[in-house]
């Protein structure tokens, strides 16, 4: 808002907003994914309480990003949007990532967790791995040439997913659902 | 510095001009960084004097121009042109410059001159973006000789009545208004007349995405995004992209009988 009022959005404000919301979606996704490894390495179990909030933060920005595209970029020209989603690979994967985020956001409440049961809930929420990969691919494919930025996101994601494989291979601890104490 | 003795041109559009600030702060000029705001920040150290432009190759009278001599050699016209970037945005820019054809006639191309190759300065000390290998430096571009001779094709030496800001391609750049912006090479040091179609910087980087012709064409999409519409900088709604960026009446005959989908 501050930037908008003070002419800080540059010559192409809609592009700026699109990039801004997209970047924060990716940051949110990667931060969410960093909780489990951080917790395991540091032993700080309180970190888990941040995970839901971070996930919803990512979803919030994904919604803004999607709205920017539908509204400010395409002006609700749904024919155009459908064509775009089908024809443009980077939009296809981005759209898919967004759609997959929706069930995760919907089942993020305590009530939904209980209703689904830990096992099922967890299986569903493993979708975030796919979502994060799709998100990074979405960024990678839209860049014209200088892939430095998407490469950084890809490397961070590779580390975050790689750690999980290492944990799985070495320790073979059954992943235990965090106990959610009723607040 | 202000340019003097500028004459207006019937080729100018009367559309609303993009503000000076946007024209000079929202730039694609990878020699100074890949962000739109990078060139305005990083190009200030570029030394544009002394500067020479070598006109060479398949010509009878090759010539190395000093930039100050070149500025006085031909009458400077104002050309208010639409500029359409391959990325889907556009501007309206009042350039100052002269028809490239004026310069070409002086050097008298020989019969084997079928294409013209333009080369940008290569100096990583002054152009920090060239220290990364994001493109194959130096930046090269090319036109068919008849495209280069077309009266709409200019060498620009200024905009908004002032000498060209560094971030816009000082001291001299090409402007080909019916093609995507990247065809218009900046900070030119060499113009060479050749027989074979020259390799271009973006063509080498991604041959399937940036063809030699790169005429603005709403019917031929970039492989990754649509070219049907564009966002005019400063406008809220997107507008339809016009064939040849609205210059079809003047240039369509250059491409008669060509499959523009194949020759994208």
Automatic annotation (TrEMBL), chain A:
Respond yes or no to whether keyword Membrane is given for this record.
Answer: yes
Q: Matching InterPro entries, A to Z?
A: Fe3_Rdtase_TM_dom, MsrQ-like
Predominant location category: membrane
One GO term of the cellular component aspect?
plasma membrane
| Entry membrane topology | Multi-pass membrane protein
**UniProt keyword Flavoprotein, yes or no:** yes
Q: How, per the record, is the cofactor bound?
A: Binds 1 heme b (iron(II)-protoporphyrin IX) group per subunit.
Lineage, top-rank taxon, reads Bacteria
- Membrane-crossing ranges are 16-38, 50-71, 91-112, 124-141, 147-167
GO molecular function: any one? oxidoreductase activity, acting on diphenols and related substances as donors
Give the record's keywords alphabetically.
Cell membrane, Electron transport, Flavoprotein, FMN, Heme, Iron, Membrane, Metal-binding, Transmembrane, Transmembrane helix, Transport
Q: Please state where this protein is localized.
A: Cell membrane; Membrane
Instruction: Kindly list the biological process annotations in GO that this record carries.
Output: protein repair
Name all Ferric oxidoreductase domain ranges.
Answer: 22-136
- Cofactor field: heme b; FMN
Q: Return the HAMAP family for the record.
A: MsrQ
Alphabetized PANTHER family for the sequence: PROTEIN-METHIONINE-SULFOXIDE REDUCTASE HEME-BINDING SUBUNIT MSRQ
Q: Which family does it belong to?
A: Belongs to the MsrQ family.
User: What exactly does this protein do?
Assistant: Part of the MsrPQ system that repairs oxidized periplasmic proteins containing methionine sulfoxide residues (Met-O), using respiratory chain electrons. Thus protects these proteins from oxidative-stress damage caused by reactive species of oxygen and chlorine generated by the host defense mechanisms. MsrPQ is essential for the maintenance of envelope integrity under bleach stress, rescuing a wide series of structurally unrelated periplasmic proteins from methionine oxidation.
Quote the subunit structure annotation: Heterodimer of a catalytic subunit (MsrP) and a heme-binding subunit (MsrQ).
**Protein known as:** Protein-methionine-sulfoxide reductase heme-binding subunit MsrQ
């Amino acid at each position: 808002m501050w930037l908008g009022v003070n002419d800080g959005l540059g010559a192409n404000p809609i592009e700026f907003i699109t990039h801004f919301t997209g970047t924060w979606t990716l940051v949110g996704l990667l931060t969410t994914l960093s909780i489990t490894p951080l917790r395991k390495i540091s032993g700080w179990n309180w970190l888990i309480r941040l995970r839901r909030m971070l996930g919803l933060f990512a979803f919030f920005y994904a919604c803004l990003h999607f709205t920017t595209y539908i509204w400010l970029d395409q002006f609700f020209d749904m024919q155009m949007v459908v064509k775009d989603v089908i024809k443009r690979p980077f939009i296809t994967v981005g759209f898919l990532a967004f759609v997959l985020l929706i069930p995760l956001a919907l089942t993020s409440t305590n009530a939904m967790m209980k209703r689904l049961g830990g096992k099922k809930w967890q299986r569903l929420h493993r979708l975030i791995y796919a979502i994060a990969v799709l998100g990074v691919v979405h960024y990678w494919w839209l860049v014209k040439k200088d892939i430095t930025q998407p490469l950084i996101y890809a490397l961070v994601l590779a580390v975050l997913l790689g750690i999980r494989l290492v944990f799985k291979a070495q320790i073979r601890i059954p992943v235990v659902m965090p106990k959610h104490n009723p607040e | 510095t202000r340019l003097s003795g500028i004459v207006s041109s019937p080729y100018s559009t009367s559309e609303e001009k993009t503000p000076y600030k946007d024209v000079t702060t929202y730039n694609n000029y990878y020699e100074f960084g890949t962000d739109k705001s990078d060139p305005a920040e990083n190009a200030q150290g570029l030394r544009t004097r002394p500067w020479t432009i070598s006109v060479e190759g398949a010509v009878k009278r090759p010539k190395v121009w000093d930039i100050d001599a070149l500025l006085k050699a031909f009458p400077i016209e104002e050309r208010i042109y639409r500029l359409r970037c391959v990325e889907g945005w556009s501007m309206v820019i009042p350039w100052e410059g002269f028809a490239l054809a004026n310069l070409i006639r002086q050097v008298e191309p020989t019969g084997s001159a079928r294409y013209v190759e333009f080369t940008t300065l290569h100096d990583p000390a002054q152009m920090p973006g060239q220290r990364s290998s994001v493109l194959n430096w130096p930046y090269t571009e090319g036109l068919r000789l008849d495209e280069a001779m077309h009266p709409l094709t200019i060498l620009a030496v200024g905009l908004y009545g002032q000498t060209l800001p560094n971030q816009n391609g000082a001291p001299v750049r090409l402007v080909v208004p019916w093609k995507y912006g990247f065809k218009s090479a900046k900070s030119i040091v060499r113009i060479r007349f050749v027989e074979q179609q020259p390799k271009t910087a973006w063509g080498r980087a991604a041959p399937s995405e940036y063809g030699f012709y790169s005429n603005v064409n709403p019917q031929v999409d970039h492989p990754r995004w649509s070219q049907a519409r564009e966002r005019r900088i400063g406008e809220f709604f997107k507008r339809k992209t016009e064939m040849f960026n609205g210059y079809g009446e003047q240039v369509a005959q250059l491409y008669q009988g060509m499959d523009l989908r194949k020759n994208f």
